[in-house]
């Protein structure tokens, strides 16, 4: 028997579940008799323990199990009869009036229901779609990056197969230098302020600007003294904001030699026949795939923001709390992967993810409504096409495809991605869309900041 569902707010509901005590007791007695057939106790053979002793030992445990099962079933029946979509897990609390001996067991089940989702006119949404065309200049820039990744160094002034680096043997930007340095604060050495045979590349920003400026122009064997003021927000708190006196002594200067863009270079990038035109074509294909991925991400974010703006719904607190816990667990896993000690038990407050979780839940409800209303579910052929496209960037595409289809979770993630893509295409087909052309560099910068 169940009472009428009470409305406690926009989404919160309550229903009282009543269970006759004699019905519960019959089930308890039945389970105890079954339990007695196999229960073990000191001094008795299995199945020969007196029923009274089994009852005394297990009455409370079995009664709790029976009540849990029956309350859960009654609650399910009520929500099905009333056609209620329960959001999250309900909470059950015994209901007993003070000073009253109840004839039945009674529990209050408090829960939330899924909200009504109202999505406005998609045609009113405004989307600025980023467009990037890969030019020869973009390919040249990528080749220059690849050359720098394969740089090797030669001592300045020493002849070799690639020359001697020029007549000027002073240190320049791009050179790899090795030096000794000694730093003092008020005439005293400080921790981390001195080193021998310290190597770094000038111009990469690894050292503070004053340090690099002092090293520029020095030759091997030369020394220089200079003042260096540590930034106020410097990671070393003992020296932050203070001015130290440094002495540096140059010990080695090596100039960078970048490989030529030739057949050998192409082969080093996996082009077996060393064809430079083919190498440039493959670089262009990779850049276009990367540009497509980045532009899709930017457009997707804009579409999701637009959908949230035109949608009206209340968000179940239970779902937000569940997602907060998921985000906490994800944060702990990230810390574990970074090698942080005791990351699995890191005290990460769920509150810090409240806003993010609410947005994720709200967006999930909006997308589910949109997918259902406009039949935007992922079709098998769409999922396969996306897997094939993703696999193209790997050396063995067939193995990547097999890897996806051998695991349901990975396939489900791809399915979710396709559903989002379907939603994006649906919105772009109806919203007011304007195109904005940007370079690949601008695109990369925009997605890095997002």
UniProtKB/TrEMBL annotation:
<dbReference type="GO" id="GO:0015031">
    <property type="term" value="P:protein transport"/>
</dbReference>
<dbReference type="GO" id="GO:0043022">
    <property type="term" value="F:ribosome binding"/>
</dbReference>
<dbReference type="InterPro" id="IPR008881">
    <property type="entry name" value="Trigger_fac_ribosome-bd_bac"/>
</dbReference>
<dbReference type="InterPro" id="IPR005215">
    <property type="entry name" value="Trig_fac"/>
</dbReference>
<dbReference type="InterPro" id="IPR036611">
    <property type="entry name" value="Trigger_fac_ribosome-bd_sf"/>
</dbReference>
<comment type="similarity">
    <text>Belongs to the FKBP-type PPIase family. Tig subfamily.</text>
</comment>
<dbReference type="Pfam" id="PF00254">
    <property type="entry name" value="FKBP_C"/>
</dbReference>
<comment type="function">
    <text>Involved in protein export. Acts as a chaperone by maintaining the newly synthesized protein in an open conformation. Functions as a peptidyl-prolyl cis-trans isomerase.</text>
</comment>
<dbReference type="InterPro" id="IPR037041">
    <property type="entry name" value="Trigger_fac_C_sf"/>
</dbReference>
<dbReference type="InterPro" id="IPR001179">
    <property type="entry name" value="PPIase_FKBP_dom"/>
</dbReference>
<dbReference type="GO" id="GO:0044183">
    <property type="term" value="F:protein folding chaperone"/>
</dbReference>
<keyword id="KW-0413">Isomerase</keyword>
<protein>
    <recommendedName>
        <fullName>Trigger factor</fullName>
        <ecNumber>5.2.1.8</ecNumber>
    </recommendedName>
</protein>
<keyword id="KW-0131">Cell cycle</keyword>
<keyword id="KW-0697">Rotamase</keyword>
<dbReference type="InterPro" id="IPR027304">
    <property type="entry name" value="Trigger_fact/SurA_dom_sf"/>
</dbReference>
<dbReference type="Pfam" id="PF05697">
    <property type="entry name" value="Trigger_N"/>
</dbReference>
<dbReference type="InterPro" id="IPR008880">
    <property type="entry name" value="Trigger_fac_C"/>
</dbReference>
<dbReference type="GO" id="GO:0051301">
    <property type="term" value="P:cell division"/>
</dbReference>
<dbReference type="GO" id="GO:0005737">
    <property type="term" value="C:cytoplasm"/>
</dbReference>
<dbReference type="InterPro" id="IPR046357">
    <property type="entry name" value="PPIase_dom_sf"/>
</dbReference>
<dbReference type="GO" id="GO:0043335">
    <property type="term" value="P:protein unfolding"/>
</dbReference>
<feature type="domain" description="PPIase FKBP-type">
    <location>
        <begin position="174"/>
        <end position="259"/>
    </location>
</feature>
<keyword id="KW-0143">Chaperone</keyword>
<keyword id="KW-0963">Cytoplasm</keyword>
<keyword id="KW-0132">Cell division</keyword>
<dbReference type="GO" id="GO:0003755">
    <property type="term" value="F:peptidyl-prolyl cis-trans isomerase activity"/>
</dbReference>
<dbReference type="Pfam" id="PF05698">
    <property type="entry name" value="Trigger_C"/>
</dbReference>
<dbReference type="GO" id="GO:0051083">
    <property type="term" value="P:'de novo' cotranslational protein folding"/>
</dbReference>
């Amino acid at each position: 028997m169940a009472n009428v569902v009470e409305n406690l707010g926009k989404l919160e509901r309550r229903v009282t579940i009543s269970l006759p005590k004699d019905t519960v007791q019959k089930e308890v007695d039945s389970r105890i008799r079954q339990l007695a057939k196999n229960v073990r106790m000191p001094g008795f053979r299995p199945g020969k323990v007196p029923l009274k002793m089994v009852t005394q030992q297990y009455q409370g445990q079995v009664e709790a199990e029976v009540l849990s099962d029956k309350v859960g079933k009654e609650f399910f029946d009520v929500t099905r009869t009333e056609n209620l979509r329960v959001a999250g897990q309900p909470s059950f609390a015994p209901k007993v009036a003070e000073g009253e001996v109840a004839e039945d067991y009674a529990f209050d089940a408090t829960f939330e229901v899924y909200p009504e989702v109202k999505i406005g006119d998609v045609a009113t949404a405004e989307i600025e779609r980023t467009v990037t065309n890969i030019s020869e200049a973009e390919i040249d820039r990528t080749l220059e990056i690849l050359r720098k990744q394969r740089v090797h160094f030669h001592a300045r002034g020493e002849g070799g197969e690639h020359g001697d680096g020029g007549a000027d043997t002073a240190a320049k930007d791009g050179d790899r230098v090795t030096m000794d340095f000694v730093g003092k604060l008020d005439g005293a050495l400080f921790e981390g302020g001195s080193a021998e045979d310290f190597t770094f590349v000038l111009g990469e920003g690894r050292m503070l600007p004053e340090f690099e400026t002092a090293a520029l122009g020095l030759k091997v064997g030369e020394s220089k003294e200079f003042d260096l003021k540590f930034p106020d927000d410097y990671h070393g708190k003992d020296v932050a904001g203070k001015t130290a006196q440094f002495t540096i002594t140059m010990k080695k200067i090596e100039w960078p030699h970048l490989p030529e863009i030739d057949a050998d270079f192409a082969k080093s990038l996996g082009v077996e026949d060393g064809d430079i035109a083919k190498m440039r074509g493959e670089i262009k294909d990779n850049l276009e795939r990367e540009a497509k991925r980045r532009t899709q991400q930017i457009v997707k974010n804009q579409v999701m923001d637009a959908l949230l703006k035109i949608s009206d719904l209340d968000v179940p607190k239970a779902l937000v709390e569940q997602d907060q816990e998921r985000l906490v667990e994800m944060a702990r896993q990230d810390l574990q992967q970074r090698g942080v000690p005791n990351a699995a038990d890191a005290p990460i407050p769920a509150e810090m993810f409240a806003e993010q979780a609410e947005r994720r839940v709200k967006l999930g409800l909006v997308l589910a409504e949109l997918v259902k209303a406009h039949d935007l579910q992922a079709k098998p052929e769409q999922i396969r096409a996306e897997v094939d496209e993703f696999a193209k960037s790997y050396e063995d595409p067939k193995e990547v495809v097999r890897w996806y289809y051998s695991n349901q979770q990975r396939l489900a993630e791809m399915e979710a991605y396709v559903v989002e893509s379907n939603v994006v295409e649906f919105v772009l087909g109806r919203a007011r869309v304007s195109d904005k052309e940007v370079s690949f560099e601008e695109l990369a910068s925009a997605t890095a900041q997002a």
